[in-house]
Amino acid sequence: MGKLRVAVIGAQGRMGTEAVRAVTAAEDLELVAALGRGDRLDALVEAGAQVAVELTHPDAVLENLEFCVRRGIHGVVGTTGWTEERLASLRGWLADSPATGVLIAPNFGIGAVLTMRFAQQAARFFESVEIIESHHPGKADAPSGTAVRTAQLVGAARRAADRGEQPDATMTALDGARGALVDGVPVHSVRLRGLVAHQEVRFGDEGEVLTISHDSMNRSSFMPGVLLGVRRVVETPGLTFGLEHFLDLDD
Ligand SMILES: NC(=O)c1ccc[n+]([C@@H]2O[C@H](COP(=O)([O-])OP(=O)(O)OC[C@H]3O[C@@H](n4cnc5c(N)ncnc54)[C@H](O)[C@@H]3O)[C@@H](O)[C@H]2O)c1
Ligand SMILES: O=C(O)C1=N[C@H](C(=O)O)CCC1
Which residues bind NAD(+) (predicted)? Predict the structure, then answer.
């Protein structure tokens, strides 16, 4: 079998630079295109790309994915900012191109995916939960895609366990002091020079606190997840949301 032909969109960015390096170094993959802002998407077709790794900006990702899916190019997406409305558009394009696969990974870090899974498992046992995510100050979106996904998973697990609202006697608060409420879970976003990507999920109950915490120290740590996504997406038509679906976590 020949090498899988891979393109990177957003190739000059922080993540894109790492992805270009990782794809180039992988023996079973061939980097056939590296696109930056302003480059023609037609270059993907001309290069014969089979998979596009999308690492751009929430404002650009939908247009790039529509182009790819309509041409049968599979997508591995790290770009954040996903809403139900955006996902519905993507599902529509995929319905018209049923052999095409798209993986959206809020986080490619294996440890971060496990953090989300562990938080989901812990959620039903605790009265209180808050999420603190901390990132570099160049990040465009807040809260992080990882924190939003974690809060959704925790919120769903709390609902399934009939956990009511969290205790909180706050009567007056400055705007933002209690974070953003995502699915009933307060999420606090820190932006600090020197950081890469970090998250703490703090659970509390009478007399005990459980903190599940994960740190990405560099962006090369995301690359095993990106490469796994590239290899698996070509055999997984439709939308896959979350790298956990490619990790066989229940085995
Ligand atoms: N899923 C994950 O594990 C993960 C990890 C890190 C970052 N991210 C996300 O990936 C995205 C990129 O992050 P980053 O830190 O690399 O950002 P960045 O700003 O360093 O890089 C983005 C690059 O995309 C380029 N770009 C913008 N619009 C484009 C377009 N239409 N076509 C081609 N290129 C375009 C920019 O010029 C820039 O070079 C963000 O949404 C971020 O949150 C996800
Ligand atoms: O650096 C970023 O930007 C990151 N974005 C993702 C998110 O929003 O969760 C993953 C972590 C790094």
Answer: 10-15, 78-80, 105-108
CA–centroid distance, 157 to ligand 2, in Å, is 23
Q: Is 184 annotated as a binding residue?
A: no
What DSSP line would sit under 47-80, residue for residue? TT-SEEEE-S-TTTHHHHHHHHHHTT-EEEE---
Q: For CA atoms 57, 60, 66, 71, give the dihedral sign.
A: negative
**218 annotated to a ligand binding site:** no
Span 71-120, pLDDT tens digits: 999 999 999 999 999 999 999 999 999 999 999 999 999 999 999 999 99
107 is in an annotated binding site: yes
HSE-up of 152 (CA within 13 Å, CB side)? 13
Q: Which ligand is nearest to the CA of 56?
A: 1
The helix (H) or strand (E) run that includes residue 143 is: none
Burial of 39: CB neighbours in 10 Å, binned 0-12, 13-18, 19+: middle
Q: Are strands 238-241 and 208-216 parallel, antiparallel or unpaired?
A: unpaired
Q: Whose CA is nearest to atom 2 of ligand 2?
A: 139
pTM score: 0.97
ipTM for the predicted complex: 0.99
Is residue 5 a contact partner of residue 73, using CB atoms and an 8 Å limit?
Answer: no
Is the Cα dihedral 1, 18, 116, 237 positive or negative?
A: negative
* Polymer length in residues for the chain: 251
Residue 145 CB–ligand 2 contact under 6 Å = yes
Ligand 1 touching residue 11 (CB < 6 A): no
Amino acid 1: pLDDT: 74
Is 189 near ligand 2, meaning CB less than 6 Å away?
no
